[in-house]
Design a protein that fits this description.
single chain; alpha+beta; nine-stranded mixed beta sheet; five-stranded antiparallel beta sheet; 11 helices; 21 strands; 20% helix
Length: 450
Amino acid sequence: MNRFAISGLSAAVALLAFAAVAPSADAQQFYNGRQRDIIFVAPNGDILDYVPSGAAYARDRRGNRVLVDPYGNVIATEMRASGYYPRPPVRDAYNGDPYYGDDPYGDTRYSERGAVTGSIPRDGQIDRQPLDDQPYPQSDDYASIEPNPQAPDVMQPKPPQEPVITLKNKSKSEIVALQVFLDRAGVSPGAIDGHMGANVTKAIYAYQQMTGETLDPNNTDAILEQLRMTGGLPLVSYTITPADAAGPYVAEIPEDYAHKAAMSSLSYTSTTEALAERFHMDEGFLKEINPGVDFTVPGTIIKVVNPGDVKSGSVARIVADKGRKQVFAYDNAGNLIAAYPASIGSTDTPSPSGTVTVERVAFNPGYTYNPKINFQQGANDKILNIPPGPNGPVGTVWMALSKPTYGIHGTPEPSKIGRTQSHGCIRLTNWDATELAKMVKPGVTVEFVD
């Protein structure tokens, strides 16, 4: 029998269990006092459903309103959704799902915190060391390439190599079920958020490459039946523990690298940020499905994604596909055992070409900023040693490559993976990078393809 045979009763029960935690579909969303007819389109054509921290408004040469980062790089152009999407209207353009494309939670990274154990240091507390007086560290626990998470790719993306996947009248809950199914199969859709984006599409094709089976994303009944047999419902209840609430957490993560270097660690900023990463979720989505919840109170029962077991195996070869923005991991027999969405290089600082090897793997790495080999960040013209933590520049993992200063690593902003570019490195979500790192040993080949 085909693995995706329909099981209508179990599907209906599972979907009702998810829908019970979804907020009202009639809520009107606003941005800066206006109804959400506004979207932000990145230079590479991606649609951003967040406003990056530190972004500011400006005008381009044509008079369009644009978002720019602190260095003047264009992050996205503002336009009306009704003028960007063809008919039907934007509310129906995503198959009637009122949640898709809306951003009911905005950038919530620093809006909720648990126990705070750190703060942004004052300039007088910053140790700026002269370049010529400080030896460059060679520790296996330090990364060295600048992985700026907001460097945009100004080139237009290549045409897709596979047919575009269209969902038919699928709700947000059904898309979450699809994302969880893919995550459990070892083909990561990135941060699970209930949106049918490019990362989900890439994962569907990777699943077909891995298994040889055609996955119909519109067959929710079959997907839910497979979930039932591989760990249960896509959402489960979780009780916040005292350890979850206690942290340790930091007040916030400063932009200035000198301020970062003066901190004792770059920990999570809140319980929601920590739990979202643990359960492979977008932080805003975690808050959305738990409206009104105080995540700092131990004993509170919340809904979380049920991602299943961590992928295991031995990786012999990694392919970093720049065009697809995806990483493929193969075993000794040439079988695909995992695939992850990725941010790989940019037009200003492209990733290397050809084949390199993994030289070492460091978990919870620190980061050494050196403007002689990295770009200059702000006014920082001295070497800075930045402490480890999930909000560090390279996240929770650093896999150093044989080409100096390049590596595969995590990120402090998992929801941006596959949507923004890097400064040459391969950037994954922290959980995907950790999973891959545990299957990799020094000597594994990494092939960069266009």
